[in-house]
Design goal:
Elements: H1 4-12, E1 39-45, H2 49-61, E2 67-72, H3 78-91, E3 97-104, E4 107-110
InterPro entries: FBL15-like (IPR055312)
Length: 115
């Protein structure tokens, strides 16, 4: 499932009148079962409120999750990347392998925080 276009649109502009965001946000409290989901790749992550809420819920819903890869949008500052990595790790469980990626000269590379 590629939600990057949706979240990019959400973070770049105000929602138009009648947008689905204005409707009841059942997905934030809905209890989904994604117990067969093993791997997730999130691309162009910016750390918007919508992305963070969805990510937190994803860790709750995907009880069989083994690996998650997060590639940050190249507009995200280093300091923000560091904080977002810490925050996403707090949502995770110890058995989940988490890899973070940033773009350097338009090439995706594994992110290694100095901490």
């Amino acid at each position: 499932m590629d939600l990057s276009d949706y979240f990019i649109r959400k973070t770049q502009a105000e929602c138009p009148q009648g947008c689905i965001c204005g409707q009841p946000s059942n997905w934030k409290t809905e209890e989904l079962k994604l117990n067969c989901l093993r791997e997730v790749e999130i691309r162009q992550f910016r750390g918007s409120d919508h992305e963070l809420v969805f990510s937190k819920r994803l860790f709750t819903w995907a009880t069989g999750l083994k690996r998650i890869a997060v590639a940050f949008n190249d507009s995200v500052a280093e300091s923000t990347t560091k904080e977002l990595c810490k925050m996403l790790r707090t949502f995770s469980r110890p058995e989940i392998c988490m890899d973070f990626y940033v773009y350097q000269n338009k090439v995706k590379v594994l992110y290694a925080s100095e901490d």
